[in-house]
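User: Can you write out an input/output pair for a complex, sequences first and structure second?

Assistant: Here is one pair. Inputs:
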Amino acid sequence: MSGLSAFLTDAIAYLAPLSAVAMGGLATEYVGSLNIALEGLIVVGAFSYAVFGLLLDPVAAYVAALAVPAAVAYASDLFSRKTRADSFVVGLGVNMLAPAAASIVSQAVFGTKGVAVVPGLQAARSFGGLAALPLAGPLFGQRWTDYLAVAAAALVALALARTPFGTRARAAGMNADSLAMAGLDAGRVRGAAYAVSGLACGAAGAALAASVGAWVPSMSAGRGWIALVAVYLGGKRLGGTFAACALFALLLSLANGAQAVSSAPAELLMSAPYFLTAAVVIAGSARSRRRR
Amino acid sequence: MIGPIAFRTVKDAGGAGGFRKLAAGIVVAAGFAVLAATALSNEPVAALGAFFAAPFATPSSFLSMVELSAPLALCALGVIVTFRAGHFSLGGEGQAYAGSLAAAIVGYYGYSSLGSAATGAAVLAGALAGSLVAAVPAMGRRFAGADVLLTSILVSQGAVFAVDWAIGGPLRDVAGNLIAMPALRPDVLLARLAPPSTVTLAPIVAVALCLAAGLYFERTRSGAAHDLYGRNPLFAELQGFDSKLLSWAPIVASGTLHGVAGALMVLGAKGTAIRGMSGGIGWSAIGVALVAGSRPSAVPLAALLFAWLDSGSRQAAVLSDLPPDAGQAIKALVIMLVSVRPAWALIRRTLRSRAGARVGTDAAADAAADAAAPVSRARGGGAGAPEGEA
Amino acid sequence: MRLLSLGSVSKYYSSTATLAVDGASFELRPGEVHALVGENGAGKSTLAKIMCGFESPDSGRIELRGEGLSFGSHRDAERAGIGFVPQYSMLAPGLTAAENVALGHEPRMLGVFADRRRAAYDFSILADRYGFVVDPDAVVSTLSAAERREVEILRALSRGGDVLVLDEPTSILGERETSALFALIGRLKDAGAGIVYISHRAREILELADRISVMRSGRLESTVAASDVDERSLADMIMGGASIPAGERGGQEPGAAMLELRGVSLGGRGADRLDGADLVVRSGEIVAVIALGGNGLEALEAVACGEAEPDSGEALVRGRPVRSYARRELVSGVMAYIPTDREGRGLCAKASVALNAVARRLPSYSFREFAAGEAPLADAGAILSAFNVRNWPRRRIDTLSGGNRQRVVVARELERQASLVIAANPAQGLDGSSRAALFSRLSEMRAAGSAVLILSSDPEDASAVADRSFALYRGRLKAVGPADESAIAAALTGAAP
């Protein structure tokens, strides 16, 4: 494998879960609600995959990895709607609760608070044989869970762009009264968007856990936040969000790859994409402000 | 976003909102602590005893907990300053961490030239570093109108990596096992007021700043303008307040407070900059601000509540088999539950919604507030004619 | 024979402690247009919401064709055949016209995907049938106010009901759209549908209605046949007896120019643009500019208050260019400004009534005075009493009704003797007596030498007090006689004079 193809394989492996999370973030953004809990939901997905992988089998683990975060996201939204708690604050709570709860349960199930390797949980590179192909190789060299994460992202994107649910979600975000006039419950639409959001984060979490075949605390490593930024950077549109994700995937794997080949310190390299993106966000707002 | 804040200047609402939330927070926390101990521990009595009693068992353990609450209180105060100006800065973590690094550098390397004056210089350096990290989102807001939520997270995350590098790389004390800078000289550190506890001057400084901030928000014109800007910047501008200043200064002020908090951690209990020392303080601080109902005067007690959850769960983990993360989980649950509207409002609303069908969802409650007004204003629209009311 | 009937219906809002509808009984026959009139806050809109299932009454019964009904939501009312055209836009601005109409009833492909082409096709069939011309694929936010109203009407008709409730449907329609709507109502009526028509416009009501019901403070006072009333008596019914004083036209000559627009153009704000406007407002006169939506009133307001700098031309206050919200003028009390966008610019929703009332005076208090809080509270009381706002200084302002919120804004802005007053839709939400108080305060200020510019979408605001009036149509100003409503109406809609 050449350096370039290794780099691309790396970038695509980074992009797969990130795009799923970003599409999840976009789903709630459509209904006009910022899902700040993406990061926590990834943790829930990854942890569910590991726990159910130990107790049951990988397929059941994958289903659980989708279902549990979806349920958590739906419940948190239901909670904030029914009690009129601020969804932003409830999301912050989910972000704090998820790693803490995972650590407590991990102690009980795996007997450790730290890294827990689950045998047989690392997903195979299904088309590994094709990975040596020139150019297209990196597309085939991924694990099946990464393909599923991409599929989840595509499904969410399709649902948002092409189904009545997507139209209703957008209507809810623009003017909830338009749904009332159509006899629809805006709250239910919002709940569904949160569930979808959780599901997408779950797919990403499972992909992360499956890539190492273990539960690693803090394995989400800020992907939820990056996805959130990608949603905004992409102008809250499908295409823009995906493009922003691709940009992040390239930047972060570039920073990662540079550690291997240069003597530049890893952490300093890792900080660059964040500063760069902040500069891009600021420059972008300056431009749109001038246009106004 | 964080609870409605009463304007005590014109004496409405009686001014107990913040403390009501705080009381609810304490009750909820205690309740969950009992629950956690019974569910997660095989020796619940020991766990509970450790959780509730150990932090208060000796004056020393209590004072150490008070010391632990001081940086948290300062960060929470910073959160309140930005949130009440309508800026949702989530960058506290990086600001505090940068403050710690700067304070440790000045405290360690400045000792040779400054002597014990290095302490003050270290606090200043921390304040400056925190302000600088906050200045990026602040200036982005002021000159480009950039979303503070995004830029603050990004810059903070970048700063965390950069500080990690500095502590683990060029500045690391290679002799030690910890990934940390070399320890500061004891006479640079803040004096311990009551050994063997770790308590220093920091809690007193924090309380004084909280009281001053309370005075600012509730008794001064600038504070009222700050609040009005936070709720409706356009209105504030039309009323002639300095909205340009308010669009960035609260963000930088918050960075300063976070930076000072970071410096106090170094000069207090920690003794130097340690990798990962900020430990989620930026997020906890948002929780503290929330539990305090965005009211500065309630911050010291709310911070003490969170410090208790930290030291209580740590003690319980040492003295029994309670998982140490129980404290963190309880914090999260407290944050979620105090954000609930007061129960009586809930009950009334349930009765009302049972009594009638509603238009919209969130809009409905607002619509009901005004029988003659529109069901709710179109958020995106408004380009059309100013339509008169019925 | 009755189509829809409401029997002693009541609705109480606990949050504002108001009995919005108080034992109202109302009936609608097939093939009739039944007008519902009354002043602001009389309960018309609430009664309409009850008919349409948005609100359930606390007591009373609803019958449709003799069958008792209870609506859990608007969907139930819709199924029963009741369509609603709301006063305020309830469209999703980013969706297309066809998507808005299809919302909740989307045609599907393969049972999963939204069939947009089918929705657009259905929409154009519907629009054709009722004689509207709206592009099905146009995004709603790009449509004019009149087109948006048409989409709302089509949405109400799309479910094929035989009861249609229209809440002030013509408030933003031009002449062409209004006559199209009237023709449509005529056809629906002939087909046996019943129409509830809420309006303030006497002439329209007399043209359309078969019967007229008058509401006053939540009660339905009387129902009369339209043939039994003339325009004048109907106007009294609508206004609740309050008449607007003509205002004492100050005999004095206008003085120096306070606000001056020289060839001001401003574009790029959607449909709303200003095209070479010349306007002078002098001390001691009231100038009114009247326009329907989308004709440049928003742009004019933005230029006059200094929010936007003109693309070309000059906007001067006392000979100096006005910019950045005329901050200096507003603070020093030279200028007063009542914005159209009351919630966004006129008020701070989560603050107390008192703070909203004294906000402009904030810098004038000493530290001590403000910290003690007595002086601001006393001032708030004094400011508010001028407009008869009851003494609720400690309440949060968003618990007040729209009319009362407007009174707070008006009271604050007109408290000082400003040299220049810019009042944009100052009477929005005000009832008859508050309107009268507003206009008498404005003429009082004129007598004391203020220059007053009224920007409004209601021609009656011009006839109330203005010395000179202009109609704004497609961004161009045209002088019209102050009291000549028909000339204004013609100029506003671009009709030949």
